[in-house]
Amino acid sequence: MLIVVGAALAVAVELLEALAIVLAVGVSRRWSDALVGAAAGVVVCAVVAGVVGPLLLGNVPIGSLRLVIGVLLMLFGLEWLRKNTLRLAGRKAPASSLAEFVETQEALEQEALPPAGEPDWAARAIAFKGVLLEGLEVVLIVAALAARPSGPAPALLGAALAVVVVLGLAVWIRRPLEQLHETDLKWGVGVLLTAFGLFFAGEGLHAHWPGDDLAVVYVAVVLAFVTRVHARVIAARVQAAEAIA
């Protein structure tokens, strides 16, 4: 269940960012070009997934595989934790798919719209790049979680749930939800991915976790507590420095 939740949250966050870019292209230019660019990005990601998944599952010894999984997830998780702890502390702007939407629209405004009937290569390139970059992160995260001894089913189920939810949003809205608290969501994903990474890396190094798989829960709780406290400390220091200035 934890792997399902972790995969669903991580994939949903990445897909929301890709969705914001594609929506911006479609609203600002032409939907046909937005969908062509997005489809091309999906195809490339699918090809990468077809290579990365079997490579991890079939060619790496189980001990090394767990260590590789742990390191990959920690790389993603710690980066998300760092960025979103700073956001919670007020040192970085809050995460927002709406900001991605606006930035993409502003970038497209600088490009001339081609005549009717001609391909809009600028729009297609932006949609393609947005889907490709976010999609590659999805592929790596899901491939790492799918390489668990429990098999790929939980990670694939979580990813599928995320796809259904985000595509549902795409059907009902023309721009990302402005009230979505993405900073908290991304912080939570960072906590989960880092906890999974530490757990899997420990397994790869033949460490014994008290409680076995439940170790992911208490590691995540500790990470959540420490990073929230850290965010409050940073925010207090910033306020103190501003008061002195």
Q: What is the terminal-to-terminal distance?
A: 49 Å
Q: C-alpha Rg, in Å?
A: 20 Å
The secondary-structure class comes to mainly alpha
Q: What count of domains describes the coordinates?
A: 1
Oligomeric organization of the protein chains: single chain
**What characterizes the major β-sheet?**
none
Q: What does this molecule look like?
A:
By secondary structure, the protein is an all-alpha fold. The chain has one domain. It is 80% helix and 0% strand. The protein contains 8 helices and no strands. The chain has helices spanning 2-28, 31-59, 62-88, 97-109, 121-146, 153-172, 182-204, 215-244. Helix 2 packs parallel to helix 5 (121-146) and helix 7 crosses helix 8 (215-244). It is flat. The termini are far apart.
In short:
The protein is mainly α. It contains eight helices and no strands.
Q: SSE layout and pairings?
A:
Blueprint: H1 2-28, H2 31-59, H3 62-88, H4 97-109, H5 121-146, H6 153-172, H7 182-204, H8 215-244
Helix pairs in contact: 1-2, 1-4, 1-5, 1-6, 1-7, 2-5, 3-5, 3-7, 3-8, 5-6, 7-8
List keywords for this structure.
single chain, 80% helix
